[in-house]
Fold each of these.
Amino acid sequence: MTEARRSTGVRTPPEAVPTQRARPLPGPPVDQPLVIETRGLTKRYGTRAAVDDVDLHVAQGDRYGFLGPNGSGKTTMVRMLLGLVFATRGEIRVLGHEVPKEVHRVLPRIGAMVEGPAAYGHLSGRANLDLLDASGPGPRTGRRRRVGEAMERVGLGGVDRRPVRTYSLGMRQRLGLAGALLSRPDLLVLDEPTNGLDPHGIREIRELLIELNHEGTTVFLSSHLLAEIEALCTTVGVVDRGALVLEKPLDDVRRSTGRVVLSTPDADRAAAALGSALVDRRPDGGLVVVPANGSGASGLAQHLVGAGVRIDSLEPETISLEDVVVRITGPGSDRA
Ligand SMILES: Nc1ncnc2c1ncn2[C@@H]1O[C@H](COP(=O)(O)OP(=O)(O)OP(=O)(O)O)[C@@H](O)[C@H]1O
């Protein structure tokens, strides 16, 4: 069952999205207008549902991570949002417009990168972006500036005249992102944007996306990399075999358990002093403790020190995104 979204995470609201909707799709309330919403969205290939009855809610200002194992339907979802694949059933609304019916009104406001960046290898990065810009809705005037700015933005300003065939994978990925930025989009839709990048490249892309988000761009990205979503996103949607099984602000997912984890060189002495307040011992040696009612971590520390226990650290126990994903998707969810 879907753990539905109740509120949005940290927000820097960008300029307003059209809120007049001919027919708003029903869904859980959120604090900001929705820039992507789907209702009962389903895509079948033969008898197999690649996307299965999905109600998605991406709010303005989100950095929304669409997380799922390989083959769980992420790319199919992204392609439907962009009008590249027709749904078998269900409704899609992006930036207040129906997709695919009104996709021509939506696409000029979206920057997208799906299934890796495509570029002509014999042309320079700048020439590739010139071509892309020429095929877009933007005016001819200002193209040079737009392309230059986009190249600078992704850190390719110094190599803009080199043929793309000489670019590393990371540079190609950044060129793809530069293409997505040309129209100064309200919404970025990125399918596995850090695929194939090394840790340095992943960090660069992440920092750039956070920067763009702070300037007002809503970011929707798909990934099978839990750590990537955890480091970048404000909201997470978890998809398992085509179905959305969780959609929540990341801060709500990683909530505190109310217990604390004690790290000490005097574990046995601590265990004796804690009695029934000690509820678990972790593989890393940490003692999981339930502080006595109202005493909190400071009361616990006082009690332990009084019992002659040395304390290395005493920290609140939190549930990680990984804990939650493992629990709700179960083992083998990424198997065919
Ligand atoms: N054109 C197609 N025809 C038939 N089946 C398809 C087609 N496109 C996707 N599928 C199937 O739909 C399911 C979801 O695929 P999709 O590519 O959307 O998943 P994904 O989560 O993006 O996977 P990955 O992370 O590997 O890219 C898979 O079982 C895939 O084989």
Amino acid sequence: MAQRLLTSANRVSARFAFIFTLSLSCTYLCYNIIFYGGAVMTNQGYEGKRCPPSKNAGGKKLLGKLSDNNCASPDVSRSAGQRGSNEQSRPPASPGGHWADMSLRNMSVAQKYGNKKLPNALIVGVKKGGTRAVLEFIRIHPDVRALGTEPHFFDRNYDRGLDWYRELMPRTLDSQITLEKTPSYFVTREAPRRIASMSHETKLIVVVRNPVTRAISDYTQTLSKKPDIPTFEELAFKNRSLSLVDTSWNAIRIGMYILHLENWLQYFRPSQMHFVSGERLITDPAGEMGRVQDFLGLKRIITDKHFYFNRTKGFPCLKKPESSSQPRCLGKSKGRTHVQIDPEVIEQLQEFYRPFNIKFYETVGQDFKWE
Ligand SMILES: Nc1ncnc2c1ncn2[C@@H]1O[C@H](COP(=O)(O)OS(=O)(=O)O)[C@@H](OP(=O)(O)O)[C@H]1O
């Protein structure tokens, strides 16, 4: 009897031990399910905000804040879109990721500033004619965007291709004109053909000036860089007593405008070319710029009120140039004091240029009064 009692007590304690172990195991299992599962969710939330590893992390740094938003998962960006109104106006992150977001960003830059386009107008010459003044004056116009430097595409850089050239241009809206100036185009044999092959519709501006004054200006510039060159007279004549002019000297050759113009007229209609008087540009900048605006099909916005005559400089200056409230004159290299030339030499050169000038006036239908 006593043994039976002992055996049944053992069974009870064994069952108790089994149930206890089982409940312990269950508790452990439940604990794991609850807490381990929670840890996974926490990690998922964190991973969702992390950017995927990128090979060009350096480039991403440059993208700055934009990249912080762009690398978020679609869920994260959706909840971001439900935030304040400022954030709602941002472009949503696209499933295409980083590059798709970059192109979205470019799209909004394009919407605001337009695209880079090949120029539809060029200031092609002439060197020392007043090309910088025309460029700086016309770019005040809100419908003109101009490249500040001379790209020399159609003479020195043609091999780089049109895509290279386009990339240099400022962004323009469809309503805006893209403009650049390179004065050496006017005397570059291949330039008219090359420009016409870019577009037959390109508008061409040529700023011309008395060829004798232009030659002296050109020489003054060269002399400022190379003080050891021969005198103007020595360079200008093969034989001065015979009035034999050296037409191989660039400073002389550039001023034979009609010869260069004939090359342009093989590729462009006269109506596509506009000639600015370099002299009137100084005495009446608003009048000359009025005609430039008409030629470019622009509303006459640049008027007298944009200019004042700076007595110290001896030239008209801009009262209020683009993106500044300060009045501004052109730099020191524009409007230099010319070297003194013997008046007889000037007279000889005027004689030399006369027939070229007359033919030039007839061809363009304008008398520039250089005599
Ligand atoms: N507003 C104003 N301010 C200063 N200079 C003016 C202006 N308008 C025309 N000009 C004349 O422009 C001449 C320089 O011509 P370019 O700009 O065509 O020169 S360049 O070919 O780009 O080097 C420059 O020639 P130089 O006087 O011989 O220096 C000026 O006479």
Amino acid sequence: MYHELLTDMYEFSMANGYFQTLPHNKQARFDVFYRNVPDHGSFVVSAGLMQALDEIKHWHFTADDIAYLRSLKHFSADFLDYLEHTKNQCTVKAIPEGTPVMPQEPILSISGPLMEVQLLETLVLNIINHQSLIATKAWQITNAADGRAVMEFGARRAQGPDAATYGARAAIIGGCSSTSNVLAAKLFHVPAVGTMAHAWIESFPDELTAFRAWAKIYPDTAALLVDTYDVVNSGVPNAIKVFKELRAAGHEPVGIRIDSGDITQLAKKARKMLDDAGFPNAKITASNALDAHIVKALLEDGAPLDNFGIGERLITSSSSPVLSGVYKMSELENNGKWEPKIKISNSREKITLPGNKQVYRLYKKDEPSKAFADVIALNDEQIGDTISAVNADVYATHDKVELKDFVAKPLLSEILTPDHEKDIETDTFAIQKFAHQKVAELPTATKRLVNPDRYPVFLTKNLADLQQKLISEYRNI
Ligand SMILES: Nc1ncnc2c1ncn2[C@@H]1O[C@H](COP(=O)(O)OP(=O)(O)OP(=O)(O)O)[C@@H](O)[C@H]1O
Ligand SMILES: O=P(O)(O)OC[C@H]1O[C@H](OP(=O)(O)OP(=O)(O)O)[C@H](O)[C@@H]1O
Ligand SMILES: O=C(O)c1cccnc1
């Protein structure tokens, strides 16, 4: 199902207004970017491009959509007739999914008929903001888990079915190994995993009987939930009994899950009991309202954990639940000529970057796998050996700097035109791997959970000058 009506009413009001007042084929460019990183991080793991592109490609209005819009009695009949016969005519430049992106950098740049590009705003932001938020949170959590598998368990706590399903995809892009959400697993070809709930244990006369019944059905995959009654005095001893029975029958047990109490203390005791009983390879999974900071604290305390199951705080990014990516006009065509556009604000942070742009990631010449800064440039600028630039950080001084000794790689590329489509990566784990590689290129200090260093982003002098020129023109100064 496509979502062409999932847009704010004012987009339709503007599109109808453009239709009445401007040439119908007037072209515009809008950029998607964000200003602040959730959880005071230093970058966002971009995600959602696959869905956004799918929506843009299939963008059109059905007869039923048009009938509904007509029923609102707010739009002209000729606009609705036009809309009924319009299909996607946009061109999309994008940074590949999984790339860590910084404030101010265009993640997507969409150009095409003003009416259409305007109507796409809400839907494109909805998809990119949501998936990038969850991918970023998943990156923070999996980074804290330091190589241990993190299973995404959040479907029951997500804000609705789409947030659960696309959130699970984003969680895997950010680093999770699997999901408990069977629909997401089917749609995105990722592993569907799980253990058992307390209801299973409660459904039998006692815990041991419940464990035995489970082990009989799933002898090679049984991960037993040990905290229904008492982890140390009942759950782990009963699990060990069943593990011994499994081993006697030729099966190697998988492990246990702890879902309440002081996880460090319980995991340490459980580990010792399992080891002493001859099960050093039995894995311990922790769950219960975990987040990156708790995972980090558990591991720093020496909790002997092998895996994590993480739901609500991952799927809702509850510690920082909004990525406020925006969609801003950067160019408008006038009599066949593109003109840069700007939104001015008293807050420097909110002044937009005009023109058609490119983002370059700069790698050290002598260490080509180390990225040290990004530069936002005008699209047609030639990037030579030296770049004259100013800091894009609105709080930094705007003194000119010379960047040298780099290899510059462009991040944005054209992936869709009205008559051509370039293949983008759609395999979820391939995107995860790409994200992992791209994050590995960033300086270590930008990846701290607490107070990470800001990754430097610059504007070329040409772009900064264009921005300043437009500010002066519009403010008459
Ligand atoms: N050792 C630990 N260090 C830091 N946080 C922990 C530790 N153990 C558990 N937590 C976290 O503390 C939070 C609350 O755990 P708490 O033990 O208070 O409640 P609970 O176990 O859910 O309670 P109940 O036993 O009633 O189910 C959870 O987010 C959990 O992940
Ligand atoms: O805590 P999360 O990170 O969201 O992980 C998923 C939680 O979902 C299940 O709990 P359930 O819905 O049964 O609630 P409860 O165990 O907290 O009572 C499971 O036992 C985890 O605790
Ligand atoms: O499989 C599990 O253990 C699971 C799945 C969803 C939520 N909580 C736990």
